[in-house]
Design a protein that fits this description.
- By secondary structure, the chain is an alpha+beta fold.
- It has one domain: Cytidine Deaminase, domain 2, CATH 3.40.140.10.
- It contains 4 helices and 5 strands; from the N terminus they run H-E-E-H-E-H-E-E-H.
- The longest helix has 12 residues.
- It is globular and about 45 Å long.
- The structure holds tetrahydrodeoxyuridine.
- Tetrahydrodeoxyuridine binds next to helix 2.
Length: 131
């Protein structure tokens, strides 16, 4: 996995952010174990609590296309700081595997990484029904 490719995809996705309220665009790019990339941006709604983060947009796009196994997800904002996923997005990422690598990038494309297990220790887990 080339982090730079995922970071560039997240930077490109950020351009589509719909952020009339916060003016804080975020982009995300999710790499599946099958090698596909799904991107996402934040989408803000006037009823503010309905806002969807970039990372969750990417996860929902992938799962709704039949992909549920992920290697890495990158998130980036227009900031000097590395963009770190919010708690709700961490729970979304953790749902599909605790080994997913989170690439937290800044606007220059610099980054740091951590497995989601490190960003969401003691995650809430609900047993899945096995077929
Ligand atoms: N946001 C994301 O897209 N991802 C995160 O992990 C945290 C925050 C968005 C939500 C909102 O549109 C804007 O950033 C400011 O909070």
């Amino acid at each position: 996995m080339n982090p730079q490719e995922l970071i560039q995809a997240a930077l490109d996705a950020k351009k589509h952010a719909y952020v009339p309220y916060s003016k804080f665009p975020v982009g995300a790019a999710l790499l599946t174990k099958s090698g596909k990339i799904y991107t996402g941006c934040n989408v803000e709604i006037g009823s503010i609590g309905l806002t969807i983060c970039a990372e969750r947009t990417a996860v929902v796009k992938a799962v709704s296309e039949g992909e549920k196994e992920f290697s890495a997800i990158c998130c980036v904002a227009d900031t000097e700081e590395y963009c770190s996923p919010c708690g709700a997005c961490r729970q979304f990422i953790a749902e599909f595997g605790m080994d997913t690598v989170v690439i937290m990038a800044n606007k220059h494309g610099d980054y740091k990484t951590a497995p989601i297990s490190g960003l969401l220790p003691h995650a809430f887990v609900l047993d899945k029904e096995l077929d």
